[in-house]
Amino acid sequence: DRLQEALAPKGVSRPDWQQNAKILAGIKDPANSRFLRQETLANALLSWQSMLPRVSHDVMSQILLEQGATLWFLRTNQVGGTMREILPLAPTNLFGEVPILSHTLRRIFASMILLPDRRDWGITVLLLLGYGAIAVPIGLTSGFLQWRPIEQKPVQVAKTLVFLFLCPTLLEELVFRVILLPYPDELNAPAITFGWAMLSLTLFVLYHPINALTLYKAGNPTLFQPIFLGLTALLGLTCTIAYLVTGSLWTISFIHWVVVVIWLFCLSGWVKLNTTP
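Above: the chain sequence. Below: its structure as tokens.
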């Protein structure tokens, strides 16, 4: 009665709504019935409240709550969120029906748009410290890492930091983590996630010596050294864990970027890559 009063204050319902009710409810066979659609000024005036979706939504919700009902709202801001029982429909064919491309685009946009919270950044910092606690002693003991800080002008330092964040950091994390790994809200079996993680890690390690032979010859022979490949594998594993926990491109890029910057600026990275600072 309260809903009737709110949505039809004059006690009159649109005739096409009344006549189509059984068809929409599935009681009447639509194949043998004609769906009526009467778009007239009179019908618009009779249903003015329901013509405003947000208003009618709030009115009906308030009425239901007043009568002691329990409501469950599927909010659009939870698309890609933590409620895994909500599996939203893709808004376009590009994001929902094109094989491989749709899946890839969804992962990329989700990892970029859904910003990490305090918990995510806390986990990121802990993983970064854990990597440093393992990598630095191994690198120093083997002689691969040496304390050789370089000097650059502030402007050059800023340019270098921005460049390093874009390439290799952002580009590599986008390819080897975001595109290859399942997004955290994808309902995959642990074995499938583990398999993709191993493939991602393997390709990430192999990419560096291949890059040294092709596009970045200054990396030869440094990128072939076993100690470098070992630390690279450890970095890949750290970023993989961070991504599967946070689902953010920015957290894994931060880890990768900090490691590269410290190696190049402080731990003899420039010298080993034959790069003039």
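The chain has eleven helices and no strands.
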